[in-house]
Specification:
Helix 3 links the parallel strand 9 and strand 10. The relative contact order is 0.21. The strands form 4 sheets. Strands 8-7-6-15-3-17 form a 6-stranded antiparallel β-sheet, with helices on one face. The protein has a 6-stranded mixed β-sheet with strand order 11-10-9-12-13-14, with helices on both faces. The protein has one domain: 3-Layer(aba) Sandwich (Rossmann fold). The chain contains 9 helices and 18 strands. The protein starts with a helix and ends in a 7-residue tail after the last helix. It has about 350 residues and is of the alpha+beta class.
Length: about 350
């Protein structure tokens, strides 16, 4: 049951770009797959944890299964995304700012004729624990989340979801911050916690978008109602380029199992886990996430031919001796899915994705 649910959602959630035109008569539940775009969100810090800015595309070396890849798009923090193309007989790399007009017009990548990805800026999904663990400190948690939403800069859209036993998509992805804040204030505490079930659905929603996408989870207790294991959630997030940040209001030593899971899941996706024992710690955690989002480098590439159809390992390093002193944080790989599998699973996946009832049967 668990693996079946995960397989359906995973097959429908990996980011694919449609390389051909579709007519109105074609079945919209099926995806025409010509090329896969791999997106990476990379944090670069010095030994003291300070963010390193001003790096250029040529400062990054990306390998997939030890095959060196060519960066297709590049974005630093809140700066506009740029498309990198090879120009002229010498193969000189030229940088072009991606605008809605250039993305819509296409034009193709000179390496493989692929369409320009329609980057829309950063998208942040907030997943708030409204289970019965959250009765104490509920208002303080709402305040911390509201302050976080107000302070987000360089983020195009924000969604606010809440969960207990079921997932509530209270405010879908929107640029209207006032609507999101009203959604935060309208939440009430309730049932048991099915965090991993609801987080899997949130990752699936985030996977539909290009560019930077992150999920910020605010949790006040362990998961006691999910059918989905956290490893499946982490793998889906890795395969769709979605960062997961976890904020737990429990001290790490009081919930060692959940704390270890939160640490592994966030690290696997290139995010971070925070354990906040006070309202100030919660505020500091949100501030840290805001700073991380503002300083990420976003890179993408079209993988070169690779016979590996399973898990592909990704390595991101900095080029040149002067940059070796810095630390790089990003996800470490993704799982390849076959186009035929996605097409055959598209219809049942649509049904599974729209259901918000995740309680055990």
């Amino acid at each position: 049951m668990k693996k079946s649910l995960f397989s359906v959602l995973l097959l429908s959630s990996v980011l694919f770009l449609n390389g051909g035109r579709r007519t109105a008569a074609q079945d919209d539940s099926r995806i025409l797959v010509n090329v896969v775009l791999v997106q990476l969100n990379v944090a670069v810090t010095d030994k003291k944890g300070n963010y390193v800015s001003g790096l250029r595309p040529e400062d990054f070396v990306i390998t997939e299964d030890k095959i060196q890849e060519r960066i297709s798009t590049f974005e630093e923090g809140n700066e506009p995304a740029r498309r990198l193309v090879l120009s002229g007989p010498q193969g000189k790399v030229v940088s072009q700012v991606i605008t809605p007009e250039t993305a819509a017009a296409g034009g193709g990548d000179t390496q493989n004729g692929s369409p320009v990805p329609a980057f829309t800026g950063a998208n942040v999904f907030i997943l708030f624990d409204t289970s019965n663990y959250m009765y104490r400190g509920f208002v303080f948690a709402q305040d911390a989340i509201a302050d976080f939403i107000r302070s987000l800069e360089g983020v195009s859209r924000v969604a606010f979801y809440s969960y207990s036993r079921d997932l509530s998509r209270a405010v879908p992805l929107t640029s209207d911050r006032a609507t999101v804040l009203r959604g935060v204030r309208s939440t009430v505490a309730g049932d048991d916690a099915a965090l991993y079930n609801c987080l899997l659905m949130t990752v699936k929603d985030a996977a539909q978008f290009t560019g930077r996408k992150a999920i910020v989870v605010f949790s006040n207790g362990p998961d006691n109602a999910s059918l989905v294991p956290p490893e499946d959630v982490a793998e889906l997030a890795q395969s769709t380029g979605t960062i997961i940040y976890m904020i737990s209001t429990r001290e790490a030593q009081t919930e060692p199992v959940s704390s270890a899971v939160f640490e592994r899941m966030s690290k696997a996706t290139g995010g971070k886990a925070y354990f906040a024992k006070s309202w100030k710690d919660e505020t500091d955690a949100f501030a840290s996430i805001r700073e991380d989002l503002a300083h990420l480098y976003s890179l993408s590439y079209y993988p070169l031919p690779n016979p590996n159809r399973g898990w592909r390992s990704i390595s991101v390093k900095l080029a040149g001796e002067n940059l070796q002193k810095y630390r790089v944080r990003t996800r470490d790989g993704y799982r390849v899915l076959k186009p035929a599998q996605i097409a055959s699973a598209a219809a049942p996946a649509a049904t599974a994705a729209t259901s918000e009832d995740t309680s055990p049967k």
